[in-house]
Design goal:
With about 180 residues, this protein is of the alpha+beta class. It has a single domain (about 20-160), classed as Lipocalin, CATH 2.40.128. It contains 5 helices and 8 strands; from the N terminus they run ααβαβββαβαβββ. The chain has an 8-stranded antiparallel barrel with strand order 1-2-3-4-5-6-7-8. The protein is globular, with a radius of gyration of 18 Å.
Length: about 180
């Protein structure tokens, strides 16, 4: 009997990605740097996991045309001293994600950290009805290490689950005056 239960549990865990749901949490810009970056706020697309937790996939400029794919990142890409050096010893607010160079990623990097070739976001935990802190870190071409670009603050606005039969629409970051 216990063997059958173990096999059932293993099969359920193996199928867990199929049970994951795509969600989007939207946040309003709550600080001056956040309003300068995205006056209409940002939405974070993520996959909720069966056993808890989530995997961030994309940042979308709410109500505008702009998005960037993000991926969890190791500190190695930040250079000498890693995240502690980039944040000047301040504690990170969450997990480290690199803005991907595909699609609108380069425009998002330029918007969040002007002059940087690569940029990372330290994104606080995504939770319904809770504010979201974000620390932006960038690495300029030829620089030995990354540096802090700005801190962004967002307040929770809404959430929804994406339908199983479609992807969110592709949108672009629009460059404009700062």
């Amino acid at each position: 009997m216990s063997r059958r239960l173990c096999i059932t549990a293993l099969l359920a865990l193996a199928a867990a990605p199929a049970w994951a749901e795509e969600h989007i949490f939207s946040y309003d810009a709550a600080s001056d740097p956040a309003r300068a970056l995205a006056a209409t706020g940002l939405s974070f697309q993520f996959e909720g996991r069966l056993l808890g937790g989530y995997r961030l996939e994309r940042i979308i400029q709410t109500g505008e045309r702009g998005s960037a794919d993000i991926r969890p990142a190791p500190e190695a890409g930040l250079g000498a001293g890693g995240l502690a050096a980039a944040l000047a010893g301040e504690k990170p607010v969450g997990g480290l994600y690199e803005i991907q160079p595909s699609a609108d990623g380069p425009a998002f990097v330029e918007a969040v950290c002007p002059g940087a070739q690569r940029a990372w976001l330290v994104i606080g935990p995504l939770r319904r009805f809770k504010d979201l802190p974000v620390q932006a870190v960038g690495r300029d071409p030829g620089a030995p290490a990354a540096h802090r670009c700005t801190d962004l603050a967002f307040s929770f606005h809404s959430d929804w689950r994406l339908p199983d039969d479609r992807e969110p629409p592709h949108v672009r970051v629009v460059r404009g005056p700062r």
